[in-house]
Amino acid sequence: MNDHLRGPQLPPARGQLSEAVAAYLRGAGRLPRTVTADPYGDDLQLALYLCYELHYRGFAGVEPRYEWDPELLRLRGAMEDRFLTALRADAPGHDSLDDALGALLVEPAEGTGVTHFLCGEGELWHLREYAAQRSLYHLKEADPHAWVLPRLWGRAKAAMAAVEFDEFGGGRAERMHARLFADLMADLGLDTGYGRYLDAGCAEMLAVVNLMSLFGLHRELRAALVGHFADVEITSSPGSRRLAEAMRRTGAGPAAEFFYDEHVEADAVHEQVVRHEVIGGLLEEEPESAGDIAFGIDATEFLEGRLARRLLTEWRAGRSSLRTPLAPEMAHTS
Predict the structure, then answer these.
(1) In terms of Cα–Cα distance, which of 270, 136, 278, 254 is closest to 197?
(2) Cβ distance 40 to 207 under 8 Å?
(3) pLDDT for position 2
(4) What is the pTM assigned to this prediction?
């Protein structure tokens, strides 16, 4: 099979670490023995993203054997340790899982986040940038979370599989959420190619996506992945309602509206399943996992908060949040 010819192109490096990883994937150069890069910075986050992407679709010209290359796994482990250590130190921790979940269930009376900005005053160019950033996750929506299925059992496994089934379109390819997001991107005149906006995505966005892979690919972090997933599902419905309104207000297009309208309804149901069945089932089997579930929530909130500050700081100053500018809006095709 020629799978290594079909993936996206390797992006330009953002520092010595990502340059070394990219060169190694091309069959040239050696990998560093130590990692000293900023755990949240462009260089480490891109290098880690390159390593994780080998477990998804890979990159054009990169042979599949690199997925399990011992030297690359050694370096990936060192980067993961640096990232995870920083998260455990920096993410504000809740005293209990109930407190962590309770904080997610309370919507502030006057929200100031990204979806509030986009709903109330966002322009079409803001929505295009937001979609380009989020495409790094949404074009593989549910894939990182699927890694946890073999690591669960009983109620938690059955409920997680049910939610994932919905995310993957309930058996219908055209209803897969990744497909629906590609349709949203087309409405916004964006390139729908997988990985197309990797070079444009900021370090804060890469960190959000990397967290999913970090939790999903390590059995010892399965409870943290469940916490992360609970955060995504609990906060999705109200945020999606605001984004659907933003799409309507700016005339983004029917597919753009539909993606978020779909998530308002679907994720309101998913929230209940995840809280009562996935988390409840896991705690029934492993009551000691409560702290790790809370950490998954806290780490997710911490990284999403960093991303929100980056986007809002740039947008309120009239600047792009992207590392490379978007091409002009492409003509819609029927």
Answers:
(1) 136
(2) yes
(3) 55
(4) 0.95
